[in-house]
Design brief:
Structural class: alpha/beta
Number of helices: 10
Helix content: 25-40%
Radius of gyration: 21 Å
CATH topology: TIM Barrel
Distance between the termini: 48 Å
Low-confidence stretches: 1-24
Order of helices and strands: HEHEHEHHEHEEHHEEEHEH
Mean pLDDT: 92
Shape: globular
Number of strands: 10
């Protein structure tokens, strides 16, 4: 009995000491299973395509393009929509394909998601902001969290779309880079994300937060510059969170520019398995669940000097036979993972794509051939 008492006191003292010195680990909260589609611009709450159904949120009105997408997603068994706005700190001229941020539009988007019981990922669709305009990026986000966060419990914050020091998508402001090389930039990325998490939690906000891998845009950790090899595990930033609500994410594509000499379904299967193994290893290493917020069948070669020979539809919502096989394999692996399914949100829905005039983007089943989202087989969110 004396021995047991001594052990109990020792354990209690260690626990109390860890609380006092701040070195205790964060424990992930029970996570939801999320499956859905993204690419819907924030200002699609103000746009209504011809032929949209009636609104269930606003009686007497026609459904906006965003609400129409959510209606279709719900009917097909999904539970998540990713809504995107342009990165203010590097895109003050509205250069990118999403939309400028509007608090009114954000509140309307959340209201639509709430009506349908959907999770809504609010995505700052930026690239270099987190590196080259860190202070602006932090300051810009703070009122968004404060003004929108209290509206709904199923909001997920995505502070940065695809972190990179590359200035290609930063037309307005791209100061000198604060780091060079994948190792130092991942460390900087982790520090910047930690500042964002601390700032957000200091307001009392406890929503889930997506932390993005540096390989979502491009890294030197894998031969093809993406995230489909074991080295990609080192591309995730290290963070802590007192709320225990962090999702790890890596964006998943198969580039024709790199794989053109072995462009077949065997390679597609290998690339999908490479992403899957990297995602599993990252969750094990860092202790957070995965929600991969973007992936698609775009072969990433536009404008293609020589398009993939198996192209079925071209443009931003296009696909090929090989890339559809890649996405189907990856989806199967995520859906069948045990003990917990890996959450995913694929790309793109939205009315801005140049493949179809439908607000549904790649979910358009009336195009010829059908969008690849119509052909993808997946489990419903409730499974």
């Amino acid at each position: 009995m004396v021995t047991v008492l001594i052990i109990a006191l020792a354990v209690s003292f260690a626990f109390l000491y860890s609380l006092l010195d701040g070195n205790h680990p964060t424990v992930p909260s029970p996570r939801p299973t999320l499956v859905g589609w993204g690419g819907v611009a924030l200002n699609e709450v103000t746009r209504t395509a011809s032929g949209n159904p009636v609104s269930s949120v606003f009686p007497g009105e026609t459904a906006s393009d965003l609400e129409y997408v959510v209606q279709v997603l719900q009917a097909r068994g999904f539970n998540t929509v990713r809504v995107d706005f342009d990165p203010y700190c590097t895109d003050m001229t509205d250069y990118n394909s999403m939309s400028v941020y509007s608090q009114t539009n954000a509140q309307t988007a959340v209201l639509i998601a709430q009506h349908y019981g959907f999770w809504i990922i609010i995505d700052y669709h930026g690239y270099s902001d987190i590196f080259r305009n860190t202070s602006c990026w932090l300051n810009y986000w703070k009122p968004i969290v404060q003004n929108v966060g209290s509206l709904y419990s199923r909001i997920i914050w995505e502070p940065e779309n695809e972190p990179t020091t590359d200035c290609s998508n930063s037309p307005s402001s791209c100061p000198s880079a604060p780091c060079s090389g994948d190792g130092s930039c991942v460390a900087y990325l982790g520090n910047a994300y930690q500042q964002w998490i601390n700032q957000t939690r200091s307001t009392g906000d406890n929503h889930w937060i997506v932390v993005q891998s540096i390989c979502s845009y491009g890294c030197g950790l894998c031969p093809d510059g993406t995230g489909d090899c074991p080295g990609a595990v080192d591309g995730y930033p290290i963070v802590t969170d007192p709320a225990g609500r962090i999702f790890l994410s890596i964006h998943s594509y198969m580039s024709y520019s790199y794989y053109s000499n072995s462009w077949n379904t065997t390679t597609a299967t290998a690339v999908a398995n490479g992403y899957y193994q990297a995602v599993l290893s990252a969750s094990t290493k860092y202790g957070w669940p995965s929600l991969n917020t973007e992936g698609g069948a775009d072969p990433l070669c536009a404008p293609c000097a020589s398009p993939p020979p198996d192209t079925k539809l071209s443009g931003s919502a296009g696909y090929t036979t090989v890339t559809l096989s890649f996405m189907q394999t990856l989806t199967n692996l995520y859906d069948a993972n045990t003990p917990a399914r890996i959450s995913w949100v694929w790309w793109p829905a939205g009315d801005w794509t140049d493949t179809t005039t439908s607000p549904l983007g790649t979910l358009d089943c009336n195009s010829s051939p059908q969008g690849w989202g119509c052909q993808l087989k997946s489990l419903p969110a409730t499974t």
